[in-house]
Structures are given as structure tokens and as C-alpha cells.
Amino acid sequence: MTHSVKTIEQKLEGRLHEKDLSEIANLAEDNANGLIDLLLRHIFEETDDPVAKKASDNATWVTQHLHPKDRTTYVYPHKAQFMRLAIDTKSPSKQRILLSMLRETEFDKTELQTDFIDFCLTTMLSCDHPVGIRALCIHLAYKQCRHYPELAQELKQQLGLMEDDLLPPGLKSAKTNTLKLINKLRYEEREKLD
User: Fold this and answer.
1) Separation CA 115–CA 30 (nearest Å)
2) Cβ(108)–Cβ(79) under 8 Å?
3) Does this model's pTM top 0.85?
């Protein structure tokens, strides 16, 4: 079944189901008909218009379902834009999906984004955000801070402010696992010094 770009745009403006996500993601394979470009255009469109907002949120959701090679080739080169959008978006669902996709990527030492680290450190402590977003921010803060001992130490201190008995299970797990990773980093540094 062939779909025009216009048909896909109309689908993005409506309610999507799992079947639609898979169908559009499969049609977009290898950026066929420029569909991945279309998805990215919608993702980066922040607007108050409800139809355009729906299309933007849906495009983000579809992008998460793209084949991993397509995300690597066409989406992840826009990682800095995804970070900025995750900070700026008013849509919690879009923010969660963007953070989830960012978590799949690697952060090397040269990609330090201080505004994104600050966002992650602030958001992980904020009860105003959903648990899933806060947990993703813990993981993403670690992915960036691990390259710098002083930032890893700051993350450890921030995590120490989170009282275990007050944390929901998902957040407690993210905190515990990240502290283990930080302690392992510190252990590896000590081994290098010996």
C-alpha cells in the first residue's frame, strides 16, 4: 500500500495507534520519500496550534519507532537540537520521548552541553516532573558527567539529596544504579593511579 507524504502528514495530525507507528516507521526506512526529513521538521516545530502540536508530538513518537540504523543515520546527528528541544518543550510526552532517544546515544567528552547537564540535574530533583522524566535525567546526567571527575562528584552529591524512603521505585532504581556506576568510575580512577 503506497502512501503519499500528504497522507502521512494527515495521519500525524490525528490519533495514532501502535499499528500506525510501525507502518509509518517502515515507510520511512532509509528516508524513503523524505519521510524522516518530514518527521524531523514536525519534531522541531514548537507551536501553540493544537493540530501542529499533535503532529509534532506524533512525529516524535514515530521517530522513536524508526529502525535503529535510520535513527543513527538521520536522527542522531541532530542530538544537540534534541537536547535543546527537550529543555524547551512544554509537552511532557514529547520531552520523555526525546530524553529516551537521547539515552540511546553515546556522549563523548567533546559533547559537553552545560545547559543540558544543568537541566538534567535540576529536573531529576524536581517533584514537578513525572518520575519517568526524572529517571531519564539521572541517566543522561551520568552519561555526560562520567567524563569529568568533578561533575561526577557533583552528580553524586545531587543524588545524595534524594531521600530513598521518599522516592518512587523507578526513581530509586535509577539513583541506585547510577551511584553504582559513579562508584565504579571512581574505583577505575584509583586503579589507574596505583
Assistant:
1) 32
2) no
3) yes
